[in-house]
Each structure stands twice: as structure tokens, then as C-alpha cells.
Amino acid sequence: MDTRRVIKRILPRQVLDYVRSIRNRGYKNLTPEQVFTKIYESGVWGKSGDPGRPFFSGSGSHQEEEVNAYVRSVSDFLDSLGE
């Protein structure tokens, strides 16, 4: 299966819309590593406030309900591949 199709299938619509929107903000010709470096360095998703933890993936990464829902979705998808 094509990797892009898999990603589009498992990611929430809001994430896909966000990814599409950042393509128009100077990220289009960058590698994934360069994109994430730029996102973290510029604080697009916020800043952690803890010098020992310079990377921050936004407040959603720290909300148990959202994290659990994402983990369940990914787990269900991965389980479906084994059938």
C-alpha cells in the first residue's frame, strides 16, 4: 500500500488540513527533517517553557484523552494490517 494513502487514512482531517496549510508557508521544498526543525525552532506549535525539553508538539500532545484516541486509532489500523 502507498505510504501517502496510509497516512491520509489514519490521520484526522484537522491534521491533514494543517499539513496542507503549512505547505503554503515556506515549507514546500523542504525535507521532512527541515520542516520539523523549522516548526520546532520557530515555535509554530508553541514552546515547552522547559529548557530541558526544547521540543513541543502542541498542547494536544499532552491531553490524555486526545493521545489515547490517537493511539487507539493507530493500533486499530496496525492490527488490521495483520489480518
Question: What report would you give on this structure?
Answer:
With 83 residues, this protein is mainly alpha-helical. The protein has one domain (3-81). The protein is 63% helix and 0% strand. It is built from four helices and no strands. The radius of gyration is 15 Å and the shape is globular. The two termini are 15 Å apart.
Q: What secondary-structure arrangement, pairings included, does this model have?
A:
Layout: H1 3-10, H2 13-27, H3 32-42, H4 64-81
Mean pLDDT across residues: 81
Helix content estimate: 55-70%
Distance, first to last CA: 15 Å
What class do helices, strands and sheet pairing give? mainly alpha
Tell me what portion of residues adopts beta-strand conformation. Answer: under 5%
Task: Quickly describe the structure.
It is built from four helices and no strands.
Give the key terms.
83 residues; mainly alpha; 63% helix; globular; 4 helices
